Amino acid sequence: MFLRCDSIVQPDENPIAFAVKETKKSPITILPNPTHGILKIASEYLNDGTIQITGLFGTTVFKSDFKNQKEIKISIQNQPKGIYIVKVISANQTYTNKIIKN
After folding, report:
1. pTM for this one?
2. Antiparallel, parallel or unpaired: β 29-31 and 60-67
3. What is the pLDDT of residues 67-81, one digit of tens each?
4. Does the 23-101 domain belong in CATH 3.90.1150.10?
């Protein structure tokens, strides 16, 4: 059995470099993650907007507006264990992060 190779890596090329995707660091920090229900959402760049936390099936479990806050504490202790999506909407930007509740 022979394997066919359609691409050749030149000796001076790094084949691993093609597999690495550069990602931008989010200006939103959510700690701790995983959590037991108390979250701290912090950012240096946001002045006002909305925070929304939803379950994987789209059910909103938390929604609140904020104004001129660099740090917000949120409780989702009454929610069941699972994966949640945190969406921070500010001006014309939206940041989305996944959190795990133990």
Report:
1. 0.71
2. unpaired
3. 888 889 999 999 999
4. no
